[in-house]
Amino acid sequence: MTLDFTTVATVAKNPRHTFHKPTIDQITLLTGLGVEGDAHMGVTVKHRSRVKADPTQPNLRQIHIIQSELFDELRDKGFEVKAGDMGENITTRGMDLLGLPRGTLPHIGDEAIVEVTGLRNPYSQIDDFQKGLLKAVLDRDAEGGLVRKAGIMGIIIQGGVVKADDEVRAVLPPKPHHKLERV
Predict the structure, then answer these.
(1) What does the pLDDT look like over 36-77, one tens digit per residue?
(2) How many Å apart are CA 96 and CA 117, to the nearest integer?
(3) What CATH class does 2-171 carry?
(4) Taking a C-beta distance cutoff of 8 angstroms, is the pair 63, 35 a contact?
(5) Which of 11, 14, 63, 25 is nearest to 42 (CA)?
(6) What is the reported pTM?
(7) What is the end-to-end Cα distance of the chain in Å, rounded?
(8) 61 and 47 Cβ atoms separated by less than 8 Å
(9) Where are the domains of the chain?
(10) What is the DSSP secondary-structure string of 7-67?
(11) φ and ψ at residue 72, rounded to 5 degrees
C-alpha cells in the first residue's frame, strides 16, 4: 500500500559530530551507507554513545528524517527551531512520519529508497541547544506511553540525489505492521 505524496522541505549534512547540520541544496544517499559526507554515514554505528557500547553493531541510523510540522508545534510552545537544528538530514512536510510502521519504504525523489528502522531517541544534549526542548519533543499517548517526536531513522536501500521539493512516497510493508520503537 502506498500513502499520499509528501515533499522534502530541506536537506542537510555535516561531516563533523555536532548537534546541528547545515542545510544545503542537495544530498546524495549511498546504498547501505547513509548520506555521503555525513558523520553518521557507515555500515556500522557512528553515534558516539553506540560506538562506545559496541562499535560492531549495524548502523540502523544512517539517515534522520523529521517532519517540519514538529517545528511549527515547537514554535507554538515558544521554541525557535529550524531545519537542521536537530541534526536531521531530511525535513519533510505533509506526512505523519511518526505514524509509519517499521519497514516502511519512503521513495524520495527520482531514485532514493529508505527503509524506516525506528524512532530517534532524543537525549539530554537537546536541552543544551534550548532549555526545555527535550521535554517538548516527548509526549504521552492516550495509554500513557512515551511518544518520541524527534523524527525517524532509517537505512539506505537504494541511493540517489535528494533535494528540496522532491516528492516522497511511502510504501507500507506487508501486514502485520509493527509500531516504531527507538533505535
Answers:
(1) 999 999 999 998 888 889 999 999 999 999 999 999 999 999
(2) 15
(3) mainly beta
(4) yes
(5) 63
(6) 0.95
(7) 24
(8) yes
(9) 2-171
(10) EEEEEE--SS--S---EESEEEEETTTEETT-TT-SSB--SHHHHHH-TTSB-S-SEEEEE
(11) -60, -45
